[in-house]
Amino acid sequence: MSGEINAQEIMTQVMQRLEAGEYEHGMEYLFQFLGNQRRKLSVDEWKSFISSEVLTHPIRNLIHKDPLTYRSFSKPRGYPGDAVILDYIYGCGARTAPPEDIIAKGIYAYTTSVPAPRAVRFRRRLIARTIDRLSETLPHPVRILSIAAGHLREVEISGAVRAKRIGDFTAFDYDEKSLQVISQEYSQFGVSTIQGSVRQLLAGKYEFGDFDFVYAAGLFDYLTQPVGQRLVQIMFDTLRENGELLVANFIPDIHDVGYMESFMDWYLIYRNDDEALDLLSLIPKDKINEPALSHDPDKNIVFITAQKKA
């Protein structure tokens, strides 16, 4: 019982700080507390703690004024991490202006500045830089496939795409609304869309042809290891000789995980470096060059890049 009282007291203290305008201090206190609870409790205890202690406290109403947090929690498209949520993180798109409510604005400023959103923005920049590099180094117009493309906001910051120097850019996604945004905003740059699911990809229902760059930015955060391995194999098979594959995955025990799983109801499948590299295990060794492993500056995401041998 003492733990329960302590949790309630801590969240009351956080609420008081937020109401006093101490947004950064209040939110950091909350993130640290929830992260510590998540680390020390079992999975079942943690889920029980969320339902009995976190979501029953009045602070929930305050926290859910933040449009980023509430959209993830309410899941208007049926899943967390949708393309609009990423637009909030990127600070682009028609719906991502900061809220007018002063407390909501303070919370939003914090939730978009912590390590996980910073890593997502780095991921976007890394993909755009890869597109630009390939467009400069390949002797032919680069062909690109993005799987689970979202709103494809890397297009906004890729000089090669904006200058129409790519040969073909295919955006594959299950969400029809996301693909509509892509078609409306980026078809002028040679981007085409295909609606489909991971299950359909695994069943071999699509034949894309040969690409120079195939990537999935956030998809693998939701795939089990066997499904992820099979999908990587399929992605690799779509590559031309010397083509590149890139997959990204959040690593375990990130700073934001307690807040994400409680107030955002946003659960990911996390992978360490070895588990991320193991996604390549179905690719024959004689067909792949030595894969490269890297991270964002905050070490929240692991990136695996692999090249198909000529």
Describe what is shown at a glance.
With 310 residues, this protein is α/β, with parallel strands linked by helices.
What would your notes on this structure say?
This protein is of the alpha/beta class and about 300 residues long. The protein has 2 domains: about 120 residues, no CATH class; about 180 residues, Rossmann fold (3-Layer(aba) Sandwich). The chain contains 14 helices and 7 strands. Strands 3-2-1-4-5-7-6 form a 7-stranded mixed sheet. Helix 10 links the parallel strand 2 and strand 3. Helix 1 packs antiparallel against helix 2 and helix 2 crosses helix 7. It starts with a helix and ends with a strand.
Note the run of SSEs as H and E: HHHHHHHHEHEHEHEHEHHEE
- What's the shape? globular
Total individual domains? 2
Gyration radius over CA:
21 Å
How far apart the termini lie comes to 64 Å
Work out the helicity level.
40-55%
